[in-house]
């Protein structure tokens, strides 16, 4: 099949290289707002180049992958739907809730499949935990602990368009909590602080945050994260049940050091970036998209799934600013 990709920044170039190596993909065509950058990536990876999105969508595509800036996602999804091309878009669907709702309405009124990129759904650890939870092997779940700790902060220029810590970073935790448990969040209490570079605070953002979520079955979920974890990129989850408990991301690459005498675990090198941590999941995710394109698989992460995760992130932002518990009923559906 022939896949078009728009946006060849760090994750875009990474996805383009992944797509090129998938058995189902015959050719990848790339474009970018910076045409010269797209042309260079195409040359380096042996791909085709399109001068702009219009030319890309007219080049007989079977599938359309969006890895452009967040501000462009909504319009690009709309363009893919209008062209009738199965579309994959990195999260988020849009920078704000209103535009996200608009895209959900647009997509759900069409018959064009749109797959949103929450790659943790394809990580073997999270999928194994989901099976344990759904099968009842862990009994009833009473607590979940999830964290996303970046090894180093993004550049200052990224923050104004990121949407803030909860919408940009812990939104992955919010989505995977729904995926693993099959439950919905009913309320949140969140807080955050700017402990590092001052540019976070200058844009009204934080670089460390925590939230307590209550699910619709009274499971309690603690979510934490930071932009400063020089020990390594550390993404984990613990699911604690009445009959058993499991951990995701607890392996030789975990960015922790035990101070207990005689303990050498973990002994491997910590992950440096999210692409390192989730490289197999990204391959599985894009393989799934080729199956969506081929019509052999239902969309594994819908625009409505993305909306639900965004609503939780919005609730956390509101809670942080107003220092109170926020019900998800307060956040538009």
From TrEMBL:
Residue ranges of every copy of the GFO/IDH/MocA-like oxidoreductase domain listed in the record: 126-246
Record domain Gfo/Idh/MocA-like oxidoreductase N-terminal: where: 1-118
InterPro entries cross-referenced by the UniProt entry: Gfo/Idh/MocA-like_OxRdtase_N (IPR000683), GFO_IDH_MocA-like_dom (IPR055170), NAD(P)-bd_dom_sf (IPR036291)
Keyword Acetylation applies: no
Superkingdom of this protein's organism: Bacteria
Entry keywords, A to Z: Oxidoreductase
Coiled-coil regions listed in the entry: none
Similarity remark: Belongs to the Gfo/Idh/MocA family.
Listed name of the protein: Gfo/Idh/MocA family oxidoreductase
């Amino acid at each position: 099949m022939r896949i078009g990709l728009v946006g060849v920044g760090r994750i875009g170039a990474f996805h383009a290289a992944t797509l090129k190596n998938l058995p189902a993909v015959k050719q990848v065509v790339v474009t970018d707002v910076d045409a010269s950058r797209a042309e260079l990536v195409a040359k380096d990876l042996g791909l085709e180049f399109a001068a702009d999105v219009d030319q890309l969508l007219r080049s007989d595509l079977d599938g359309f992958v969006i890895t452009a800036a967040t501000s462009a996602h909504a319009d690009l999804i709309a363009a893919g739907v209008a062209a009738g091309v199965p579309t994959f878009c990195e999260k988020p669907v849009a920078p704000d809730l209103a535009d996200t709702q608009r895209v959900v309405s647009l997509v759900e009124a069409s018959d064009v499949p749109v797959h949103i990129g929450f790659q943790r759904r394809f990580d073997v650890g999270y999928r194994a935990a989901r099976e344990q939870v759904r099968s009842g092997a862990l009994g009833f779940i009473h607590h979940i602990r999830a964290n996303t700790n970046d090894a180093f902060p993004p550049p200052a220029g990224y923050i104004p368009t990121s949407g803030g810590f909860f919408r940009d970073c812990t939104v992955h935790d919010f989505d995977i909590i729904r995926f693993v448990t099959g439950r919905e969040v009913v309320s949140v209490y969140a807080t955050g602080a700017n402990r590092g570079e001052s540019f976070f605070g200058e844009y009204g953002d934080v670089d460390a945050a925590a939230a307590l979520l209550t699910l619709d079955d009274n499971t309690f979920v603690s979510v934490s994260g930071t932009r400063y974890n020089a020990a390594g990129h550390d993404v984990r989850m613990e699911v604690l049940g009445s009959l058993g408990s499991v951990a995701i991301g607890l392996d030789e690459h975990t960015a922790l050091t035990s101070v207990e005498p005689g303990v050498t675990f973990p002994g491997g090198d910590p992950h440096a970036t999210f692409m390192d941590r989730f490289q197999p999941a990204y391959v599985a995710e894009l393989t799934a998209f080729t199956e969506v394109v081929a019509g052999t698989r239902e969309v594994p992460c819908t625009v409505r799934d993305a909306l639900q995760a965004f609503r939780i992130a919005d609730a956390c932002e509101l809670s942080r600013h107003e220092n109170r518990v926020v019900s998800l009923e307060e956040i538009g559906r």
